[in-house]
Amino acid sequence: MPNRGSVLRSLCLSPLIVSQKAKVRRNNGQKSPTKPKAAQLDRISSLPDEIICHILSFLPTIEAVTTSVLSTRWRSLWTLVLTLDFDDNWPCFFNTTFASVFGSILAQRKAKCIKRLCLYNYSKPFSLDLIGSLVSTAVAQNLEEMDLICNYYFEVTLPNTLFTCKTISVLKLSLGLTINLNNISSIHLPSLKVLHVDVLYLVDDESIMRLFSGCPVLEELCYEEVKSNNSTSFKICVPSLKKLHLKCHDKRVQVVTPSLEYLQVQETKVRDSLVGNLPNLLQAHADIYFDQHEKEYVFNFFNAIRQTKFLGLSTYTIEALTDASFGFPEFHNLVHLQLCLSTIDSCSLIQLLLARCPKLEILDIDKVYGKVKESGHSQLHQFLVVLAHILRRLNLESMVAPNTSWNLQSIF
């Protein structure tokens, strides 16, 4: 019978030390009472292979492989796991030794596909050529999801096969990664539904637009602080998109997504035509700011999202609304409004919003800090009592910071 650690030693890993000897304790020459058989039962090992492999899929691959030393039952279970998860804590991470380890793992795998490949690099520079090799190998095994997270500013050339992969449905490229998509001859991802592009440096805007146009069924896009050498405006034009998370200080971005149902704009500067009309919008979260000479852009933004049923406004957005002093558009479908205020003395602004939301049923007022002026107690008391009567639900539980001297419960 092969040694239990032979698999791990072939992968340049040290097996876990699992004691096979039971210690016998004696008390006055007598053996300690034997534990009931029920307490000794290995319930996990009795589970079906499919369930155990599903559990192992949540572990880093190094830990999943290590379970092969537990017993004969576990020796080959890791080879059936559909996920591969590598980070820079792996011994000899991202060098030729790791490449051989990765190849050995793939050679021993019995699963017919790779559902998810995760490559996390936080602290150690890696071999750029190896990244392409690993991705190509995974794509050849019908890759479905990939996370590539890197904390270094290197230009990585991903293989052409990744951008023509017929099976991949989730692609996440994150942190300080630099990539030149101009070297990719063709981009066609017929199954890609989720794309995250986070703090990614692109050589030019045409690269990202080529990527968008090559995703005909894309439904979810997370686009965070993408940088480019180009100064001309460019559009996020994805007709099939239903969910968008946008975090970008670049005022050149324009969003053209008529099928959008969920929009989250975070730490983003409002500019002319930031978003087009969104007739199917159901939920919107706005965290925006603007220059003083561009106040009219605030109205354009809210006019574009006026069809939403849920609207969440951050502290900065509330300040933008207060400073802009424009005619707020009517939100005739809005039933749930969530406000994050920087001051408790915002009754006039809330009144303005309520006047433009005829179907509003639920109002959340959250995260208000500081003490309320004594002179404002009476006005605020009357205002909130009115709100409590006209709305179906008024949430004020975290309206004031814990150190305030004002008792919110006294209102009711």
UniProtKB/TrEMBL annotation:
Write down the InterPro entries for this protein, in alphabetical order. Answer: F-box-like_dom_sf (IPR036047), F-box_AtFBL13-like (IPR053781), F-box_dom (IPR001810), FBL13/AtMIF1-like (IPR050232), LRR_dom_sf (IPR032675), LRR_FXL15/At3g58940/PEG3-like (IPR055411)
Q: Which domain of life is it from?
A: Eukaryota
According to the UniProt entry, the coiled-coil residues are none
User: What protein does this entry describe?
Assistant: F-box domain-containing protein
- Give start and end of each F-box domain: 41-93
- What is the species listed in this Swiss-Prot or TrEMBL entry? Glycine max (Soybean)
According to its UniProt record, what is one Pfam family this protein matches?
Answer: F-box
